[in-house]
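ARCHIVE CARD
Drawer: 12
Card no.: 0347
Subject: one protein chain, sequence and derived structure
Cross-reference: see card 0346
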Amino acid sequence: MTVSVVGLLSVITFILCRNAGLRVSHATVCIVLGFYLASSSFAEPISEVTQGLLDVIQSSS
């Protein structure tokens, strides 16, 4: 993932915390889960799916 995707996801998380009732504790749990997923065997398939989705989005615009 690129820095811009990480930045976009960070902005979305911030907006959800402020406006959609997402609590900071919920966001923290999701962040910790992300770190654990990144070091697990699920990391490569998740990365491939994410990259595929980004490729589709880029080719459609």
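Annotation on reverse: The mean pLDDT is 86. The chain has three helices and no strands.
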